[in-house]
Amino acid sequence: LPTGIYALSIPTCATWNQTGITVAGNSNGSSGSDLASLINPVDIFVDNNYTLYIADGDNNRAVRYYTNDTIGTVVAGNSTPGDSPSELNAPKGIAVDQYGAIIVADSSNYRIQRFPLGSTVGTTLAINSTTNILGQVRDLHINVNNEIFVTDSDYSHVIKYYPNNGVGVTFSRQLWIRLSSKSVVRPIWKFRRWK
Fold this sequence. Notes:
This protein has 195 residues and is mainly β. The chain is built from no helices and 14 strands.
């Protein structure tokens, strides 16, 4: 795999069809917990095969859609919030590593879960503790070295986790913008895709 940061060059004269196409969820805008519906989908990840993974926040699950599917497949969690290895609580971020494992920012459980390819039982990669301060993770990204970067909106920082190490390194604590002496903008942005 190539390394580095890549950007897509889009000509200034490029145009798009301004009518969107619903690729997951209900095209009429209704929400639900059946496998054709979503409730508050928070994040997406598209792999090299154009498979779409969705952090379906209020359904407490991660859902996979293959190209042209209208019905998703639950790949992690279920409709009930929980903290067992097979449950999620308001997932906010999702990615797939180079081995096909699904990595989920299990936001309201203050942890990062890894679901091996084909398994709905996760293992905890990182969790809030006295040695690893981790608040609500809003987004995550995995690079080619399997290092995970997460945005933590509770503590206003970005954390980097190395493979097989549940203790993160604060990548930047100064990435917020101070608007006044009493307010900050929390890091909840999307990472650029690094290949």
